[in-house]
Design goal:
Layout lengths: L1 H14 L25 E6 L11 E9 L2 E9 L6 E2 L1 E5 L18 E2 L6 E7 L9 E8 L2 E10 L6
Antiparallel strand pairs: 1-2, 2-3, 3-7, 4-6, 5-8, 8-9
Length: about 160
Amino acid sequence: MRMSIKFTLVALCLSVGGCAMYGKSSGTEISDSGPGMRNDWTATLVTPSTLSGAVQVRGTANWMHDGSGSKVMVSISNATPGGRHPWHIHSGRCGGNGPIVGDPSAYKALEVNGDGNANENASLSMPLPSMSDYYVNIHASPENMGTIIACGNLAAPVR
């Protein structure tokens, strides 16, 4: 019985992070430059539920520091080959109607290739923000800016 109690105490002690008799732990240090840490804003782009079934565009967006300004990289897939889709970062959240961030002419339309994929970059003269709400939207076409075929809320960097 005594051996069972002793074994249980040692197992409990080890499972909660060690005991004083096994030496002192230095703790965990968190850094924003270590592996797995992000220094850019990211978004997963998906088709709004109102268009599900008709279109299923998906993609990603990354907004990162670039010298004294910032750079945005957008990639979409499962789009209609030959499509041309304007896109922008906006202030606010998906479904809102926030203003475009930066110069609208900095955003070159996505040109969809034969496989349904498109990639594009935009260089913005503004620095990467430290906080607030932003989203990326992908418009149906230059003639149909009112229809959003994909949107994603940008998540701030992990600090």
